[in-house]
């Protein structure tokens, strides 16, 4: 069987993200959470907050490609300083590959942004230790201010 993801499905995913509380939505291509390779489309809006996190398992690399829109992918050191900002989109880099153990996040710069993420499975929910202690939790009082800092810091 061949799987086909249409432009209409990706546009619908973006519409879902626009109305979602978290301002993001995903469409899994993989059939189960224990699949060896996780493949998913992620639609994001500018007000989404992706708390800085890392994947501590030695095999948890990520490959990320922006298909529509624009975002900045951020890498951090252990103290929470931004060490690299990578613009992703039509007029910038299209893809990045992230090694395991690297603190990271991203900020969406344009409504209607969606990307393809590929990573080794199986899916394991993030634990509190996977999130950066120096960053506020999602939906916490400081999250909006921290998102703004991520948008504007060098």
Please tell me about this protein's structure:
This protein has a single domain (7-152), classed as Jelly Rolls, CATH 2.60.120.10. The protein is 15% helix and 34% strand. The chain has helices spanning 7-19, 143-152; strands at residues 24-28, 37-44, 62-68, 70-76, 82-89, 95-98, 103-108, 113-120. The strands form two sheets. A five-stranded antiparallel sheet has the order 1-2-8-3-6. A three-stranded antiparallel sheet has the order 5-4-7, covered by helices on one side. Strand 1 (24-28) and strand 2 (37-44) form a beta hairpin. The model has no long low-confidence stretch (mean pLDDT 94).
Key structural traits:
154 residues; alpha+beta; Jelly Rolls; five-stranded antiparallel beta sheet; three-stranded antiparallel beta sheet; 2 helices; 34% strand
Quick summary of this structure?
By secondary structure, the protein is α+β, with helices and mostly antiparallel strands. It is built from two helices and eight strands; from the N terminus they run αββββββββα. The protein has a single domain, classed as Jelly Rolls.
CATH superfamily: Jelly Rolls
Q: Over the alpha carbons, how many angstroms does the gyration radius reach?
A: 15 Å
Tell how many strands the DSSP assignment holds.
8
Our measurement of the CA-to-CA distance between the termini, rounded to an integer number of angstroms, reads: 46 Å
Treating each run of at least 4 consecutive H or I residues as one helix, how many helices? 2
Please state the second-level CATH architecture.
Sandwich
Low-confidence residue ranges: none
Mean pLDDT value: 94
Strand order of the largest sheet: 1-2-8-3-6
CATH topology: Jelly Rolls
Major sheet attributes: 5 strands, antiparallel
Structural class: alpha+beta
Percent of residues in β-strands: 25-35%
- Into which percent range does the helicity of residues fall? 10-25%
Shape: globular
Number of domains: 1
CATH class: Mainly Beta
């Amino acid at each position: 069987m061949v799987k086909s993801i249409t432009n209409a499905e990706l546009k619908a995913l973006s519409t879902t993200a626009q109305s979602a509380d978290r301002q993001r939505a995903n469409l899994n291509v993989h059939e189960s959470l224990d699949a060896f390779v996780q493949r998913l489309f992620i639609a994001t809006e500018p007000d989404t907050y992706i708390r800085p996190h890392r994947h501590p398992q030695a095999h948890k690399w990520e490959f990320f490609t922006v298909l529509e829109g624009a975002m900045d992918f951020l890498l951090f050191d252990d103290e929470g300083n931004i060490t690299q900002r990578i613009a992703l989109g039509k007029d910038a880099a299209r893809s990045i590959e992230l090694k395991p153990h690297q603190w990271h996040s991203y900020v969406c710069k344009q409504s209607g942004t969606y990307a393809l993420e590929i990573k080794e499975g199986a899916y394991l929910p993030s634990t509190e230790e996977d999130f950066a202690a120096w960053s506020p939790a999602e939906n916490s009082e400081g999250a909006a201010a921290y998102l703004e800092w991520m948008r504007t810091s060098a």
